[in-house]
Amino acid sequence: MRFSILALLAAIAFAVPSAAAAKGAPPPLSAEAKARLPAVEAYLNSIRSLKSQFIQSSDDGGPMAAGTFQLLRPGRMRIDYDPPNANFIVADGRFVYFWDAEVREQQNAPIGSTLADFLLRERISLSGDVTVTRLEQEDGLLELTLVQTKDPGLGSLTLVFEEKPFGLRKWRVLDAQGRTTQVALQNPQFGVSLDKDQFYFRDPGRRRGRD
Prior knowledge:
single chain, alpha+beta, outer membrane lipoprotein receptor (LolB), chain A
């Protein structure tokens, strides 16, 4: 299922140029929107670990996919697809590794060059090198969209929070082809104990070859 890993890379990992993204400086937020940012920032910084099932979808009508998402801040993340899909993504604190089971190859990139960097930092900030371009409330949800401050023409990340109780429930990414990919968390568990050993890339092909 090569489509799935490429879509998930767009949804979670790579911050790629987007033809559909806004060019130039984004419009300023309202005073009311700005007043909410400190609380959202404090909530994001309170998330030190997270484990959740997820459902991935895109607006181009492609197939849906499901799997498990794990996060251990700072720097660590793991995404595994449900069988029979054997693709996975893992961040070890320095690099993000992408295993494509169909071609049995891995790719990697420094965490700092990916959208994942925002959620994996020791200290998350909604200012500085990222700029919040939109904050809207509707039907019990709060949506916050951010871009890179130095180049707002790069792909945007939208975080979606449930208001009551307040919590992260999904995110959306605009990719280079103007496609929106969404990852929705299912029954997320926050503050859970996670095994640090799983946040390292181990080549499945080499492991199988030694058995």
